[in-house]
Write a structure and sequence with these properties.
This protein has 322 residues and is of the alpha/beta class. The chain is 27% helix and 17% strand. It has eight helices and eight strands. The longest helix has 18 residues. 43% of the residues are buried.
Length: 322
């Protein structure tokens, strides 16, 4: 069973803001927890990811960030922020809620969430709030030709502070590889995660590039980090069968390159045939993702920590599915 908690946030430049914390407890009383952060054009729907954790006695939480998923309000522009630091207050609040009942917290983040998470962890280092990071295909660089990357770095003019959408076009290839109505095996809300993605705004892209440059300059995250990426990156505009077994959003070589900029203790694992969201890969790759995750957590996170406590009455929730 899932519980939903709305986290009111201070107003931003578009007005009212909320974030949404989704939680699912393990069958036994646990002092261990995971907080999941989604990517761009995304929200939490990966029920099998939650199931993986709770079966191992770890309470699962997922944060639908402001302007995404369950947190999107009618007056808001999807995903639009001026800086990725605008997400820090809702992460802070989610962590505050989780830490009331848990001694161990791992942040599991995907894509854009995988860029936000190490920047947040660097900010709170030394406070013991988080014991590890798992980054699933983190958005460490732009997967575009060099001229376009340089053009993105020029977004330091007033254009970068407007809500103007950039004329970049869109592709539904990645969505088609995932959703069961097309070539995929997953079911999710196409209103919250459209096949063709969200519009890219100058303000958002400028914020992402500032965050990426900050990471490239080097962070000092003081907990173990697991970075997961596909072995293969592929640029396509139209669907091809190979899109089902490669990252067609980001370049895994860039992810591997920049992973060492996070901190002194980073493990980088490449997953054969993995798609961009590795936990949505075909079953053989997906099984390897979870195997690597378990091995890493047992080695670096759970070692020397107390196991789950004896069984307790079932937690009550208000949703049966994410």
């Amino acid at each position: 069973m899932y519980e939903i908690t709305v986290l009111p946030m201070p107003d931003d430049f578009e007005g009212e803001v909320v974030a949404t914390l989704v939680s699912r407890r393990a069958e036994t009383l646990s002092r261990r927890a995971v907080l999941y952060l989604h990517g761009f054009t995304d929200y939490f729907f990966q029920d099998h990811l939650a199931e993986h954790y709770v079966q191992r006695g770890i309470d699962f939480y997922a944060l639908d960030l402001r302007k995404y998923g369950r947190s999107l309000l009618p007056h808001q522009t999807r995903g639009l922020v001026r800086s990725v630091t605008e997400y820090f207050p809702e992460i802070d609040e989610a962590v505050r809620v989780i830490r009331r009942d848990h001694d161990e917290l791992t942040v599991n983040a995907h894509s854009t969430g995988g860029l936000i998470a190490p920047l947040w962890a660097d900010r709170v280092r030394g406070r013991g709030l988080v014991q590890g990071l798992v980054l699933n295909s983190p958005f460490f660089d732009l997967n575009v030709p060099t001229p376009l990357r340089l053009a993105a770095d020029l977004l330091k003019t007033p254009l970068s502070y407007t809500r103007r959408a950039l004329p970049l076009g869109s592709s539904n290839v990645y969505g088609r590889t995932l959703h069961r109505s097309e070539q995929g095996e997953w079911d999710y809300d196409l209103e919250l995660k459209p096949l063709g993605g969200f519009s890219v705004h100058a303000m958002w892209l400028a914020a992402i590039r500032r965050a990426q440059r900050r990471l490239h300059a080097g962070l000092s995250v003081d907990v173990p980090v697991l970075v997961l990426a596909s072995t293969i990156g592929l640029r396509v505009r139209d669907f091809v069968p190979e899109a089902r077994s490669a990252d067609i959003v980001l370049d895994p070589r860039q992810i591997a390159r920049w992973s060492t900029a996070i901190g002194p203790h980073v493990t980088c694992v490449r997953i054969p045939d993995g798609v961009h969201d590795l936990v949505l890969s075909a079953e053989p790759a997906r099984k390897q993702v979870f195997s690597e995750l378990d091995r890493w957590m047992n080695t670096y996170i759970h070692q020397g920590r107390a196991p789950a406590h004896p069984a307790h009455p079932a937690h009550q929730g208000n949703e049966n599915s994410p």
